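Consider the following input, taken from an annotated entry for DUF5071 domain-containing protein (Paenibacillus sp. AN1007).
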Amino acid sequence: MDIRTLIPEHKNDFERVEMLKNYKVEELKPIIYDLLTWLQDMNWPIALEIQNILLNFKEDLIPHIRTILLTDDDEWKYWILTSLMRKLPNHIIVLLKPELERIRDHPTSDELQSDLIEEVEEILNRIL
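Applying the prediction step yields:
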């Protein structure tokens, strides 16, 4: 079976979410980033379920979160910071310290206009 067929196709795709729960973390690694796209808006019905699945990936999330923090999608960054990263243990979050410090110390104009700085400071205070 092609693991990519398990990627939800719409925000109410609970059928695929339930199927994802039957796979081991190792089997789902190739689609981590695809699953993270479902955290672009935590108001989507499947977002919380996807987040709970993603939390099992621990350190494997880091390169993907790093990529998200480098995008121009401030809403996605916001949800990653306020939802997913709040549930990750400190020893994992500290691996993203340079990216978090960049947002805090050298934010883009869009990051300045969003609530990202406050969220980043809160996370940094937790790990420092």
